[in-house]
Amino acid sequence: MSRTSWTTKRDEKTRRLKSVAHLMNGAILKNRDIVEALELLLQPGDRVVLEGDNQKQASFLSEALSAVSPSRVNKLHMIMSSISRPEHLDVFEKGIAEKIDFSFAGPQSLRVSQMIEDGTLKIGEIHTYLELYGRLFIDLIPNVALVAADKADRSGNLYTGPNTEETPAIIEATAFKDGIVIVQVNEIVDELPRIDIPGSWVDVVVEADKPYQLEALFTRDPKMITELHILIGMMTIRGVYEKHQVKSLNHGIGFNTAAIELLLPTYAEKLGLRGKIATNWVLNPHPTLIPAIESGWVETIHCFGGEVGMEQYVAARPDVFFTGRDGSLRSNRAFAQVAGQYAVDMFVGSTLQIDKNANSSTVVSGRLAGFGGAPNMGHDPKGRRHSSQAWLDMITSDDPLAKGRKLVVQTVETFQNGNTPVFVDSLDALEVAKQANLATAPVMIYGDDVTHVVTEEGIAYVYKAEGEEERRQALSAVAGVTPIGRASNAKIIQSLRERGVVAYPEDLGIQRTEARRSLLAAKNVKDLVEWSEGLYNPPAKFKNW
Amino acid sequence: MSRTSWTTKRDEKTRRLKSVAHLMNGAILKNRDIVEALELLLQPGDRVVLEGDNQKQASFLSEALSAVSPSRVNKLHMIMSSISRPEHLDVFEKGIAEKIDFSFAGPQSLRVSQMIEDGTLKIGEIHTYLELYGRLFIDLIPNVALVAADKADRSGNLYTGPNTEETPAIIEATAFKDGIVIVQVNEIVDELPRIDIPGSWVDVVVEADKPYQLEALFTRDPKMITELHILIGMMTIRGVYEKHQVKSLNHGIGFNTAAIELLLPTYAEKLGLRGKIATNWVLNPHPTLIPAIESGWVETIHCFGGEVGMEQYVAARPDVFFTGRDGSLRSNRAFAQVAGQYAVDMFVGSTLQIDKNANSSTVVSGRLAGFGGAPNMGHDPKGRRHSSQAWLDMITSDDPLAKGRKLVVQTVETFQNGNTPVFVDSLDALEVAKQANLATAPVMIYGDDVTHVVTEEGIAYVYKAEGEEERRQALSAVAGVTPIGRASNAKIIQSLRERGVVAYPEDLGIQRTEARRSLLAAKNVKDLVEWSEGLYNPPAKFKNW
């Protein structure tokens, strides 16, 4: 009754590794042999995970992959967190790969859309990060993983250091299902600062010709923060953080949240909120959080990944950050996403479009940008069972089975770049879904998950609205002169303000004229460096002094 | 501006480790010194994670902890997945610990309730597993971890082998925030079969006097499966698995799901469903799944943990299970929970009470049992963005933004043990919440997350019901002669059956008399051993031949 073999995957792995034995010295492959090795280790139709977190890219391996012969390696099914580099898409144009499952495509979103239209690229599904990692263990189990680490020793043990990110998740799914794990490292050394991944999970290590690509994605120059950002930030601090006593949270990467970070040690300090709000974070090491950390606002931060230039600062602040015995940051995207979903009380983010029901998306016409971590952080986790003050504060019903919910806060200006309305009748995502032939529209955060929308006009406490129509009215009350905003009704707004479903600055004790750049704890990157006592070392493009 | 020290946690760790230096030989502590070492390594008020998965217990360390002097170690805040052993609660009676955050308390649930009433035990919060792991990185960061592994080498590298479970998650949160990691191992060896945890994450290794406790929690003897279980199983296969073409799934541990597992190679095979349903699983290695695996039903299984007796069988089936280079199972509870939440289309479980709105709980009067993984698996993950046939099949609206949802299936007999009604007017959980002073009632799965309820009477497709009242009617239609069932209305039921909101066996083409034990692929544990070609080695208590 039993089938002939239960070890087909393992046998195939053994066969493939044997085929490159002549190129290997233990676990080490010479970098000039990488293309030949990939041609031997990959088979047509393989599922290949290529590491591209949003910051850290296995750039040597992605270049090598795009150099293999499509007559030998083709029809690959690529799995990637982030489509970030040109060769991530070149492999499709060259006929090496044909299908992709991914999470985020920021820098390449325009080209992704075009290639779908041309039929060069077949989309599997678009995911939030954690969802994609989950599928690596169920129905997207990889045949081959191409990942990046800082250093390896000669036994193949890996040091991923400050930028551990998603490397452990990818390797685990591959290594323990008889897939082949190929790692590019910046350096092969005799002794590692610490071991992040044991050598027995790794098959091939190759020293790259240059360090893996690493982008400073979470660095926001305070110089770019406007008084509008500051006004939104002040309202959010008073009307959300203070009102609900939010202690654990995650911030997106926009200027609105950067403004909040820089207002904590000044504006929020004057309100007497230190220790009462925003103490426990899940967040990349945002440079704009340095003043708050130095002022004693921040108890702990668990990081999804590192941030270029923050290495020394983080290493010098182990009471706040998670670090290893060697002193450097430990980031782990999978655990940070779990914590960001289940263990923090609030997500604060921004978006490009919001419809009348508070559905939002960053997928706009002609750009299939994907989601990243926002859908995971920006929803109420229905499996959550623990309570906290902020979470319980969201209860609006007197049902004895009522439970709290996560605060999901959208902070946006009513117009992008001053002229494109953020509040729209219908999301472009609907049109994009049709063009890309997606089964569902690529909505980033669904309206029924959103609790607060903050604009320069005020705050809509949408979680408090009774019924769909009142939700829409609350939203239109803060939507300014956008199409949605113009539909608002002064009398209804007045009643919503009285019931606390909408608050304008004056309702929160804020004067619009107070919102000045002088409130920012740091006005520019140089200030951040000074706050850090010289430990923060910003990338060249942020240095202009 | 900066505070005096940013390394208080690290300095304290160094101080504590120095205080036991005289007892240590490298990373190794002699087992007779464990109590003294714990008295030196622990401080009053510490947050201590004690590993108690539901199967695997750090039993040597929990016994040692309960032997420390409460005058030296007290006011501990315990964090435990599972309250399973008597000494897990003894430490509270002895004044060593005072507060607990946990997930599951099955075997000790009665005593937990009593101790809360007596004021001996202070409950923090009750969690689903993944939620608890998330909090280890945010607001429940441990000072000390007490965990269990199979083997260590003299450098402190660990082999957790088939029972990796939650060890990596606990160690990561502790080791990388300057906490102290103490590990009991069954054996210290010169060379490990593979490295699961690098030694640089581990502080103290102690060889236990006997192997850690390991329970065969997922073993269901086919002999105990009744014709009622089989009838429910047949209906579930036809009316849920086949109807919605469900390929990826998780099963709970009850007899209803064991029956389904044993019906796949017989009943479902006859229906021609092999390869069409139930191919990709997240599941402990259930012995009752052996016949389905051997018959080619199962493509892959990712495991939360191991199962006693299944080690050899799993090692011989690497095409199906995740295994390491040494050949033994790799389980990882954190990743399996992520996959179980986000990457599978269906959860099928059972419960002790269901109310008229389909809310359910295993917390019943006087027993604070907690949740385990059910809330995580048994809800619709709002962050999910990928689609599948089964998921899309749940769409009932024509809103262009409509998306699919996870199938959350409750399979229950209308009466427990033949006389306690499962369908009740009000959950005992409400009363328990009051007694234990919980902020919210301990509901395991909320009614609005449930899509199907299957009983021996039929299937309620509650996701299809229009409005709350119709949902209740659908539920009552399958609730038999329980108080809820007696409230049903024959005319409404008829209309619900016509619209496919309710299905009775005859609607599914099933005759009640077909439900016979002869349909089971294995009738007893011995049959399972035979199916496994002798590779499954059941624990003594299941061997009676």
Textual characterization of the structure:
Chains A, B: Pfam families: Mal_decarbox_Al. Chains A, B: InterPro entries: MadA, NagB/RpiA_transferase-like. Chains A, B: It comes from Pedobacter rhodius. The structure is a homodimer of 545-residue chains. The first copy, chain A, is an alpha/beta fold. In chain A, strands 1, 2, 3, 5, 6, 7, 8, 9, 10 and 11 form a 10-stranded mixed β-sheet that branches. An 8-stranded mixed β-sheet of chain A has the order 15-14-13-16-19-22-23-24, sandwiched between helices. In chain A, strands 4-12 form a two-stranded antiparallel ribbon. The longest helix of chain A is centred in the middle third of the chain and has 18 residues, at 227-244. Chain A is globular, with a radius of gyration of 24 Å. At the A-B interface, helix 1, strand 7, helix 6, helix 7 and helix 12 of A face helix 1, strand 7, helix 6, helix 7 and helix 12 of B.
Give the secondary structure arrangement, pairings included:
The structure is a homodimer of 545-residue chains.
Chain A: H1 8-19, E1 24-25, E2 28-29, H2 34-41, E3 47-50, E4 56-57, H3 59-65, E5 76-82, H4 86-93, E6 97-104, H5 109-118, E7 122-126, H6 129-135, E8 144-152, E9 158-159, H7 167-175, E10 180-188, E11 204-207, E12 213-214, H8 227-244, E13 248-251, H9 255-270, E14 280-282, H10 290-294, E15 300-302, H11 311-315, H12 333-342, E16 346-349, E17 353-354, E18 360-361, H13 374-377, H14 389-392, E19 407-411, E20 415-416, E21 420-421, H15 428-436, E22 452-454, E23 459-460, H16 467-477, H17 483-486, H18 490-498, E24 502-503, H19 525-531
Parallel strand pairs in A: 2-11, 3-5, 3-8, 5-6, 6-7, 8-10, 10-11, 13-14, 13-16, 14-15, 16-19, 19-22
Antiparallel strand pairs in A: 1-2, 4-12, 8-9, 17-18, 20-21, 22-23, 23-24
Helix pairs in contact in A: 8-9
